[in-house]
Give the backbone structure.
Amino acid sequence: MNQNAITHIEIKNLIHSVRGKAVMLDKDLADLYGVETRALNQAVKRNVLRFPEDFMFALTREEIKRISQTVTSLKFSKNVNVFSEQGVAMLSSVLNSEQAIQVNINIMRAFVQVRRLGMTIVDVKRKIDSMEKKYDYQFKIVFDAIRQLLNPPAPAKPKHKMGFGKE
C-alpha cells in the first residue's frame, strides 16, 4: 500500500475490537509499512521488551475465526499478532524508515478519530455479526446493506489528468 494514498477512513476500517481493545493486525500493519508480515514480527521479537501484553498480543484460534469473517485473508493464518495504539506507536521505534514514520502518523490520527467515535463502527460491526448468527437467512440482506453503509466504497480515481501538462 502507498502510505500517501491511504486515508484515515481506510485505516479506521483496519482497526478491530479484540478483548475490548482497539487493535490492528500484524498483516495490515506490514502492508501499510511496506514490509513482509514475517519481517515485522521478527523486528518485534528482537525487541520483545518494548511490547508488553497491552501493546501487542497473539490472537487465539477463536479470535482469528471471528475476525476472519470480515478479513478473509486470515482464514488460514495460524499465528496472528495484534497491536494496540501504544503498540503501533512503539513499532515506529522498531521500524525506523521514512515510510514507517509517515504511516505511523496517519495511524495515530486514525486511532484518535476512532476513540472520538467511541469505537461505534467497530462495535456496530461486531453487534451485526453476532445478530446475524441469531437470525435466519431472511435478514442477511439487511445485514449486508448495513455493512455496505459502514464500509463506504473508496472514492473513484480520475481516469485522466486535467490540464495542459503531460505526464
About this structure: Helices lie at 8-12, 26-33, 37-46, 61-67, 85-94, 98-117, 120-134, 140-150. The two ends are 22 Å apart (CA to CA). Residues 65 and 129 are 12 Å apart (CA to CA). Strands lie at 15-18, 21-25, 56-58, 81-84.
